[in-house]
Backbone:
């Protein structure tokens, strides 16, 4: 091959300097045709740049996947930050949010500039980036670059990157084809560097014939190396009308030894090549040496890693070689693709394997491969890659081939198109009966694996159970080949099962399944599944102590953060469970912070299950802080979501109970009773709803009825979500006893509640049931929980009366009629409607409301309600 | 321009230099002939076929000189002449 002494690039100092000047702007575009020397220029500049870290991203040919692109950006960023590694390599996720990813990249870039002054991000071959949404994300990135960060973008075509504003502001640097053309002196230096002697006229002729086109000159130099008569070569070249690239490629190939020709032609079908793969395709060893020599000679081969094990050809060069291969060895092409496909299957690179199987024209095999791995590909976040592969099949193939229908369903599901996924699954099932026997069970497993996620997304426990049965059947009989596949499937099946169990029934099996799922995922190197299982496990563990729950939440969040998913939807169950746990223990400020984080993580598709929990958590926080109006709003929203769920929800009775109790505490007992009346028997008899009945009776001033209502919860005959409901019941009983004047019984009930609350230091129910007064009256020497009582009273006083408000002593007492009107203010009844309810004129109501506002120092209805509540003019426990 | 052609329309694409058999294989479905130092490709192309062809021209580093819709009165005999 070309003499190893042949130096690589000549130093195009003027051009590098031009780029250096351009790159002081925020964004620089290098826009020039294939083979203009963009990549070489970038590499030469990057090698010399003294301007802080360089983050170099090479977009692979026809990149169909936005997530894969951004992961490569992140990977390059981590490389620039800590070259030795440390953080795990970025891993794809099924729930990709491009804009959130851009924000993360921007934040990491800002970090990097803090450490090292200036940073340059180079995006090479950007025209290869396919998905339209990726363009929008790029505009976002380029538009929001932090100070000190520069971007250089190399592309064959002008891209719509929204840079007009920057151009006007002088923040855009541009290099175009004419800037990249070689000049005569540069051609002369290039030849000299390769030891080629050519007259000045010859140099000028070569430059004119190639029009200073870098790829043409490079091919010419490789051909000329060792040529005894370079003048003649140039004369022949100039005398022909053949296109530059084709002529020079043929000349160059002809001058190579046979083994080099074979490596070049046969491996040209690959996007990336290594020695082993090249040996396989050429059928003999030694290819790696050839590749290394080619790179050293700067012959369109570039290594992709510092260890120089993977290489890629320059795209133009590869395209020409492929055409040459098709021309000279047409009968070999399918076999080469098949060979490559096998190697990629063995090495787990399925997308690449499918591409080569398609290129070999083996459509059936390609479809099988895609269907068998569609599920794992979606776990890797490669739904867009599946889409691109599906498009490469003959039109309409998804309808006629069961395997493609399965792959289509998996991809649809991963992208949130549930109905379409269901349609394709039905289509695939129609084909199963006509499937050859040896293939049938594989296909059933593939269908079931998609169906199980679909059922979980729809919250259908029975649907998930059915599919898990299908999956656990044939999977036990699978051969070794399918082992990895089945591990993925089993981990995901366990996760889906655990999730629906946790959310629909809250059974202990949920925890077991999620724990097993997490273990399998960890063993199988699936961090995304592992985080998902652990985050759900944190929620499922709510039946244990808060200490356990908190630990599990923190573990899930920590693992998610290691992979950069701390703000992703998968970790939301852990964030939210932590917020709820802290609301229970009266740590309202911390709880509010975790809720904020949850809301940011749930920005995209939430699903009614977790949305419901979010409203409950927010409602609890408001209730704990004494803002019953906003608590009511949240519980109402939760109840609304609950009604939309296909199956049951583990916290359904909790939602309903708190909604009714809050209505009652706001004084709208009629509304509370009517909500109660609409419940089905099962929920109506739950302990949570029973507690709400107690709250209504207390609000109605009927403590005796309250005591009667609380009995089923206290004696255990009413089913409860957890012991927290029982604590609440004891506190409600305490309040009722006190109102009846039975202080002994009140103290006793409070003491029982304290004993139950002590291990977890539960505080919230004491606040919401307004049991603070009972605790105040509780003789300290009679309680075994004095410290907890102090904590509770701190919360009661610290938060319920948090902002300095006019003391109740400053407000004039409301008249009994005004109090009556006041009770209607928290409702959404209008003034005429209130007048109707009270059988008085609107004018009278107006007068009362004016007086109420004045006495409560408030200018509007909601402020009046808040003040009234702070002064306990509303709700339970107010003596009449 | 109503270029979103679903129905294929004849196009004439002129490229600088003579394309050999190897590179012409990259343009299936069009016929070619040489005119002076250029290559003329003629084919019935719908919208995406046209853009695919242009992308191929771009990828192979070829120089596009001219692209036009085939005008019937310009003389079919001359344009669609024998394969060069």
Residues:
């Amino acid at each position: 091959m070309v003499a190893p002494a042949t130096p690589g690039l000549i130093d195009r100092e003027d051009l590098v300097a031009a780029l250096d000047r351009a790159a002081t702007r925020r964004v620089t575009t290098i826009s020039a045709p294939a083979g203009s020397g963009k990549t070489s220029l970038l590499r030469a500049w990057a090698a010399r740049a003294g301007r802080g870290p360089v983050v170099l991203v090479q977009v692979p040919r026809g990149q169909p996947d936005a997530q894969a692109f951004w992961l490569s950006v992140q990977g390059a960023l981590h490389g620039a930050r800590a070259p030795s590694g440390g953080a795990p390599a970025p891993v794809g996720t099924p729930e990709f949010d491009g804009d959130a990813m851009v924000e993360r990249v921007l934040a990491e870039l800002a970090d990097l500039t803090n450490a090292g002054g200036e940073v340059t991000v180079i995006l090479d071959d950007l025209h290869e980036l396919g998905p339209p949404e990726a363009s929008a994300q790029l505009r976002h990135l380029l538009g929001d670059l932090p100070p000190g960060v520069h971007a250089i973008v190399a592309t064959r075509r002008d891209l719509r990157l929204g840079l007009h504003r920057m151009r006007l502001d002088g923040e855009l640097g541009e290099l175009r084809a004419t800037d990249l053309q070689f000049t005569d002196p540069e051609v002369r230096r290039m030849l000299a560097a390769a030891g080629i002697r050519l007259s000045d006229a010859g140099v000028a002729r070569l430059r004119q014939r190639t029009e200073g086109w870098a790829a043409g000159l490079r091919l010419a130099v490789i051909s000329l190396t060792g040529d005894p008569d370079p003048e003649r070569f140039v004369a022949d070249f100039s005398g022909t009308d053949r296109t530059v690239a084709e002529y020079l490629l043929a000349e160059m190939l002809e001058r190579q030894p046979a083994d080099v020709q074979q490596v070049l032609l046969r491996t040209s079908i690959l996007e990336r090549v290594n020695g082993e793969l090249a040996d396989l395709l050429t059928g003999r060893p030694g290819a790696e040496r050839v590749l290394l020599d080619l790179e050293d000679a700067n012959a369109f081969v570039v290594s992709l890693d510092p260890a120089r094990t993977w290489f890629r050809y320059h795209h133009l060069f590869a395209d020409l070689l492929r055409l040459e291969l098709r021309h000279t060895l047409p009968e070999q092409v399918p076999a080469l693709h098949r060979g490559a496909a096998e190697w990629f299957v063995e090495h787990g690179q399925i997308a690449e394997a499918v591409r080569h199987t398609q290129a070999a024209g083996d459509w059936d095999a390609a479809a099988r491969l895609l269907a068998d791995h569609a599920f794992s590909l979606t776990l890797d976040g490669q739904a867009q890659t599946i889409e691109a592969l599906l498009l490469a099949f003959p039109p309409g193939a998804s309808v006629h081939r069961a395997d493609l229908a399965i792959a289509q369903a998996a991809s649809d599901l991963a992208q949130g198109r549930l109905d379409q996924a269901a349609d394709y699954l039905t289509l695939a099932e129609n084909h199963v009966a006509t499937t050859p026997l040896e293939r049938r069970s594989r296909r059933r497993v593939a269908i079931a694996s998609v169906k199980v996620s679909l059922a979980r997304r729809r919250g259908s426990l029975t649907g998930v159970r059915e599919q898990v049965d299908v999956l656990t059947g044939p999977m036990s009989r699978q051969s070794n080949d399918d082992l990895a596949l089945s591990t993925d499937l089993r981990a995901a099946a366990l996760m889906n099962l655990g999730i629906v169990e946790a959310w629909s029934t809250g059974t202990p099996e949920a925890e077991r399944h999620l724990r097993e799922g997490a273990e399998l995922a960890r063993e199988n190197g699936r961090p995304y599944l592992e985080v998902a299982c652990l985050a759900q496990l944190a929620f499922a563990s709510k039946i244990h102590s808060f200490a356990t729950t908190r630990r599990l939440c923190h573990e899930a969040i920590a693992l998610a953060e290691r992979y950069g998913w701390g703000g992703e939807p998968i970790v939301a169950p852990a964030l939210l469970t932590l917020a709820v746990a802290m609301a229970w223990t009266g740590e309202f400020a911390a709880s509010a912070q975790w809720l904020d984080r949850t809301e940011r993580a749930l920005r995209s598709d939430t699903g009614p299950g977790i949305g419901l929990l979010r409203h409950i958590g927010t409602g609890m926080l408001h209730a704990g802080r004494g803002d019953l109006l906003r608590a009511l709003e949240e519980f109402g929203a939760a109840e609304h979501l609950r009604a939309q769920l296909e199956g049951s929800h583990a916290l359904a009775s909790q939602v309903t109970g708190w909604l009714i109790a809050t209505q009652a505490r706001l004084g709208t007992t009629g509304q509370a009773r009517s909500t109660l009346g609409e419940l089905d028997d099962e929920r109506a008899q739950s302990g949570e709803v029973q507690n709400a009945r107690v709250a209504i009776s207390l609000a109605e001033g009927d403590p005796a009825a309250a005591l009667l209502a609380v009995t089923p919860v206290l004696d255990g005959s009413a089913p409860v979500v957890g012991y927290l409901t029982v604590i609440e019941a004891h506190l409600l009983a305490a309040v009722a006893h006190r109102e009846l004047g039975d202080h002994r019984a009140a103290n006793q009930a409070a003491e029982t509640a304290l004993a139950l609350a002590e291990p977890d230091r539960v505080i919230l129910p004491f606040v919401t049931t307004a049991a603070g007064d009972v605790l105040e009256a509780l003789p300290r020497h009679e309680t075994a929980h004095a410290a907890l009582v102090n904590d509770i009273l701190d919360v009661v006083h610290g938060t319920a009366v948090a902002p300095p408000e006019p003391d109740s002593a400053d407000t004039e007492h409301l008249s009994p009629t005004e109090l009556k009107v006041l009770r209607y203010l928290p409702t959404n009844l209008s003034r005429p409607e209130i007048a109707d309810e009270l059988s008085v004129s609107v004018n009278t109501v107006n007068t009362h409301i004016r007086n109420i506002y004045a006495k409560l120092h408030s200018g509007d209805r909601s402020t009046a309600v808040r003040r009234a509540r702070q002064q306990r003019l509303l709700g339970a426990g107010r003596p009449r | 321009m109503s270029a979103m052609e679903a129905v294929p329309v004849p196009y004439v694409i002129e490229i600088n230099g003579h394309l050999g058999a190897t590179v012409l294989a990259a343009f299936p479905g069009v016929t070619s002939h040489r005119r002076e130092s250029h290559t003329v490709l003629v084919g019935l192309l719908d919208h995406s076929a046209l853009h695919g062809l242009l992308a191929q021209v771009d990828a192979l580093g070829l120089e596009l000189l001219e692209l036009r819709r085939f005008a019937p009165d310009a003389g079919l005999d001359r344009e669609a002449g024998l394969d060069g």
In short: Chain B touches chain A through 20 residues (CB under 8 Å). The CA atoms of residues 68 and 81 of chain B lie 17 Å apart. Helices of chain B lie at 21-24, 47-59, 76-79.
